[in-house]
Amino acid sequence: METTIDIVEADVTHFGEDDDPETFIGDEIEYDLGIGEDPPGEEIPEGPPTPPEPPSLLPAVHLAPTLKVLRDEINARWPKRDRASDGWIGDAAHQKSKSDHNPDADNRSVNALDVDKDGIDPSLVIRKCIAHPSTEYVIYNRTIWSRSRSFKSARYTGSNPHDKHLHVSVGHSATRERSTRGWGIANAAVPKLGDRTLTKGCTGSDVRELQNLANKLGAKLVVDGDLGAKTDAWIRSFQKSKKLAVDGVVGLKTIAALRAATTPAVPISQPAKAKPGSRTLRRGMTGEDVSFVQRWIGERRCGKPNGEFNPQTEAGVRWYQRMQGLADDGIVGPLTWGKMRVKVTY
């Protein structure tokens, strides 16, 4: 008896898949997934096998419940994301071959989800997927993370590069398919510019922040969170214009120069001998209290203490605020003074 699948077109994935992706795992490679990488999740125990339902009692074809939770979290975090490359149920080509996009025979569960890469942070999604106990493997941008290889990043050698979407497959046991455990995406912390050194090949929200700043200076980059060839070329051009080392590495000096170029300084009159905690400090100010801040945060982040609240000092303050769980606005106000154990007197 043929099964009628009542699926809307938006649910159908038309991207060709390889019959057995696990056989297309190449050499292990380095792949930067950003800071705070989550450890691989422990696999949910399989439990006793579920006896197959009689054909008359089989449920309708459906996306595995655990993948519905994943999709809902992605949509909640990025409600305006592109969905053009989304899909879960296989098209006619998929139905002719082995694929996780095809319904399981025993319960009609589809255990694969494709998510368009545009408008999301793929690195964040991948980090959370490989930490979830339901996940079997993830494929994105010619790279695969598989439970069979402890989710170590490896070159994916299959015919589909998965460069327009990321693919997530989950295990076929009832406990893994039906898990309602959250994926930790909706409210996950993401790296901000300055949390790490950026180089060509990095991806993430901090790269998006970099691209947005660059576009304020006329770069006209696609804000996709991928530090590719065009973004790298612009960084080198910017470094050359600012007489910095032209190496394409976005470290403290390049970030400070970027912030200085995109945030106009506000001239402020100030006392030279202001005591720590006696006023709010921001870029452009000078004084002994500024020297205190520079010494507290350290020369590595703020440079040598000179009493000038310059762009490098601002970058150091932003870093310190993030480390202390504060909003990283680069302004030393009562909350930031408090974290420095300074009594606020104004």
UniProtKB/TrEMBL annotation:
Pfam families registered for this protein in UniProt: PG_binding_1
Gene3D superfamilies cross-referenced by the UniProt entry: PGBD-like superfamily/PGBD
Biased composition, class Basic and acidic residues, residue ranges: 93-107
Protein name: Peptidoglycan binding-like domain-containing protein
Domain Peptidoglycan binding-like: 203-258, 287-340
Record's compositionally biased regions (Pro residues): 46-56
SUPFAM superfamilies hit by this protein: PGBD-like
Protein's organism: Micromonospora polyrhachis
Region span, Disordered: 32-56, 81-113
